[in-house]
Amino acid sequence: MASKKAPQPKESQVAGTDTPDRANTNAKLQSLEAFRSDATGQALRTNQGVKVADNQNSLKAGARGPSLLEDFIMREKITHFDHERIPERIVHARGAGAHGYFQSYGCHAELTKAGFLQDPEKITPVFVRFSTVQGPRGSGDTVRDVRGFAVKFYTDEGNFDLVGNNMPVFFIQDAIKFPDFVHAVKPEPHNEMPTGGSAHDTFWDFVSLVPETAHMVIWAMSDRAIPRSLRMMEGFGVHSFRLVNAEGVASFVKFHWKPRQGVHSLLWDEAQKLAGKDADYHRRDLWEAIETGNCPEWELGVQVVAEADEHKFEFDLLDPTKLIPEELVPVTPLGKMVLDRNPDNFFAEVEQVAFCPGHIVPGIDFSNDPLLQGRLFSYTDTQISRLGGPNFHEIPINRPIAPNHSSQRDAMHRMTLDKGRAAYEPNSIDGGWPKETPPAAQQGGFESYEERIDANKIRQRSASFADHFSQARLFFQSMSASEQQHIIKAYSFELGKVEREAIRVREVNEILANIDLQLAAAVAGNLGLPAPKAGTVKVKVGKPAQSKALSQMNHPGNIGIKGRKVAVLVANGVDGASVDKVVKALEAQSARPMLLGPTSAPVKTADGRRLPVDAAMEGMPSVMFDGVWVPAGKASLEALQGSGVARHFLLEAYKHLKPMGLAVDGKLLLNTLGLKEDAGLLLGDQQKVFEQFFKAVEGHRVWVREAAAESVPA
Ligand code: HDE
């Protein structure tokens, strides 16, 4: 199981290091992108370039007469409008995207010949699209669901798409089951409910009948399925891929994205409320982070397994329902990705981007994972109907920065004007161009990894794919006590929505009991079912019995509270100096303080200053923040105490285990709310208290409060 050692990052190359040339690169890239249209200072024209004199009135026979068919200006405008929508993605319809760049930490030539992984000076542009899976384009961001994490690397050897998720495994083992799985999880066909959720009969019917889903379903019932932010998710390539070096030596790899922002989640109650209070919560968070210069960063790493070690594990490397515990093969860091530019146009970029796991470059190759093999076909196929033909690679966001001459011609929406007469190869008419390139490393022609296959043509699942429970058990047993409770509650909530008792019973007895009997008993108890006494199959005891990397608690991040949002509650009579002090302290940490008042109108400080606020408390409820601060000021504190909205704000923040701080005279307010100080509910505004508060915000939740918060109504 030896993993090849790739070069470690040098201090100057690690994520977070500023890249001074980035602004230049960005400007250069954009100047090459002639397709970005800026109408500033330009006349309004028709699509044919005719200047428009009147865009307010259609052409009529008399001011009160019928409209005329000859009004080509109105007809062009309305015809275009009539066709403005394209089919949404079958899955992953709801998404948000951003541009950025990837930079390798060093030369990884030992592992791969891929050009973008050779040189730490090279900047490779990327476009990333994050998504939910189940809901339609307009569904809420914070629903319980898997998140897509798709990255397009525009390398100078062609586009490489790493189309992954925020969970390292998948529901099924063979692509032929994908339509069944998706039909089961999607809104039910008779009434199109529920939107953006898996808490319904068809989903649980399918997964309780198909035990290979057990591992992924427990991930989906964990906090990973309700991320705090798209910036705070890990990403995984899921399947085993291959990296191939210039000598043709291949290794199996699993791709990982590790966020510098840490891995953090919402609480379930918070996620549900956010879906209504701000359905765009995740896309707004990503957008604002980039606009305010808090550009999110991830480290790309790989778990490397030599070809010779393929069969040394208790599970099959080709089985996408299995992960490689990091205790067995650590993640080798390769480089960093920074997202630093928002799209100019959502439709043109986020909606039209077309990913495909089959888009690889020399130095990267596939494995025989039967799920991956099916995906290689599906993505191009789906783009043909979604984007209206096989020329979707010509849409600006999908164009490689590498040249892409070929003998392909015509079809719907062809934009390239191919010169020459010979659209075939070999040819002598056009001098034989475009010609093949030999695969030798220096020349760069793509060469598939030569794998010996000697097999019967057969429809069969390999026996090595048969264990469905040991890694689900590993996952549950690697969780902290809080995370385990959240999983129990999630299964109980979802199964509680299932109408058919037989499905609930089957999930508890035939799936959960095989994962962990305590989990099964707790869920059974919440559903009023008898606790199963034993599982239905013999589950292998895997090694290791626990894996630290699986618990979010072990991914705190390393950028402090940069980019975290803190609400500062103010009302008339607030102590201006106390406000200034906390705002300054938060800004010094690059956090984002926002002043919230009883309304959107400015408040008056105790010394008569007019203090503008960012929003009204009601408009930006506590669920939108990572922490709350209440500055000093007798009249302001009394006003907050007398306001139902403010009291609810504070109680809800407490219930959601948010770090909270109040200047000393806030004690009375705490008493009326019946809340007690704890490791994250602090009194005082000395630097020492601020520092404790920052630490608590960095840790994201005050977990020690969980039991006390249970009884708080909010
Ligand atoms: Fe996808 N998947 N998928 N998927 N998938 C699509 O492609 C499919 C799978 C993933 O932001 C579709 O362009 C099959 C695994 C992401 O645009 C479609 C199978 C993983 C995205 C499709 C899988 C993913 C998609 C729908 C089983 C994680 C969104 C629209 C064989 C490793 C990409 C589209 C974006 C999108 C098919 C399984 C990730 C229909 C057949 C496993 C992140 O082609």
Description:
Its cofactor is heme. This is Catalase. Residues 45-433 form the Catalase core domain. Its EC number is 1.11.1.6. Residues 10-28 have a biased composition (Polar residues). The chain is α/β, with parallel strands linked by helices and 714 residues long. Among the domains are: 59-198 and 229-397, Catalase core domain (Catalase HpII,  Chain A, domain 1); 565-709, Rossmann fold (3-Layer(aba) Sandwich), CATH 3.40.50.880. Helix content is 28%, strand content 14%. It has helices at 22-32, 72-82, 178-185, 201-209, 214-220, 268-277, 281-291, 346-351, 370-386, 470-477, 481-496, 501-515, 517-527, 576-588, 634-641, 644-655, 667-673, 687-699, 706-710; strands at residues 95-104, 123-132, 147-155, 158-165, 235-236, 241-244, 250-259, 297-306, 332-341, 364-365, 565-569, 592-597, 603-604, 610-611, 615-616, 627-630, 660-662, 681-683. Helix 4 crosses helix 12, helix 11 crosses helix 13 and helix 12 (501-515) packs antiparallel against helix 13. The longest helix has 17 residues, at 370-386. It is globular and about 90 Å long. Mean pLDDT is 95; it is low at 1-18. The protein binds CIS-heme D hydroxychlorin gamma-spirolactone 17R, 18S. CIS-heme D hydroxychlorin gamma-spirolactone 17R, 18S (HDE) binds next to strand 2, strand 3, strand 4 and helix 9.
